């Protein structure tokens, strides 16, 4: 597994630390090791890319960072909080307010307008003193798709659809995880 780090302007405290992490799954009484002695550390304001062949554990590692899973052995810290020591409710809150995920598949709700899809994460986890609709509209303007915010996903082109699927990090997460989020975009919009 290759891990590439690039510096961005901000810097600061450690945001994710993974130390000697092991994770395996049991499939038909056979234990399959997915992660073995994985170590990484990244600070706020850093860009981290994880690249490796399919089946090498990238998704499992991302699931640990996204608080969807816990390590079997070792330690995973997100914002200095030990995932193995946090109750499920606290993990859910951390994930809802501080971590967001841009999926490779679009994951938009077909019955909702594009704007409603963007606002969806704010219904469960909104920040105090933020006008979510105004903030969503500003994000849509940045992506160049605010003229289509009242359209449903089936009324959007593939590129518009992809742009809307990138916007839902409306809660201004501290950690933004992505799985090939710009694969269907031209290089200008991808940047």
TrEMBL record:
Translocase listed as a keyword: no
Gene Ontology cellular-component terms listed: plasma membrane
ABC transporter domain mapped to chain residues: 16-191
UniProtKB keywords: ATP-binding, Nucleotide-binding
One of the Pfam families matching this protein, by short name: ABC_tran
SUPFAM superfamilies: P-loop containing nucleoside triphosphate hydrolases (SSF52540)
PROSITE patterns listed in its UniProt record: ABC_TRANSPORTER_2
UniProt protein name: ABC transporter, ATP-binding protein
ATP-binding found in the keyword field: yes
């Amino acid at each position: 597994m290759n891990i590439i780090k690039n510096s961005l302007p901000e810097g600061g405290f450690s945001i994710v630390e993974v130390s000697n992490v092991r994770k395996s799954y049991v499939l038909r009484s056979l234990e399959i090791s997915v992660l073995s002695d994985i170590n990484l550390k990244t600070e706020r304001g850093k860009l981290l890319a994880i690249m490796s062949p399919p089946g090498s554990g990238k998704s499992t590692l991302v699931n640990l960072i996204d608080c969807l899973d816990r390590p079997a052995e070792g330690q995973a810290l997100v914002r200095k909080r030990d995932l193995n020591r946090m109750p499920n409710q606290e993990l859910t809150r951390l994930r809802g307010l501080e971590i967001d995920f841009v999926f490779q598949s679009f994951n938009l709700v077909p019955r909702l307008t594009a704007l409603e899809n963007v606002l969806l994460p704010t219904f469960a986890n909104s920040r105090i003193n933020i006008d979510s609709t105004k903030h969503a509209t500003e994000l849509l303007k940045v992506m160049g798709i605010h003229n289509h915010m009242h359209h449903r996903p089936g009324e959007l082109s593939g590129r518009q659809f992809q742009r809307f699927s990138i916007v839902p990090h409306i809660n201004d997460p501290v950690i933004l995880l992505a799985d090939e989020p710009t694969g269907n975009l031209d290089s200008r919009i991808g940047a």
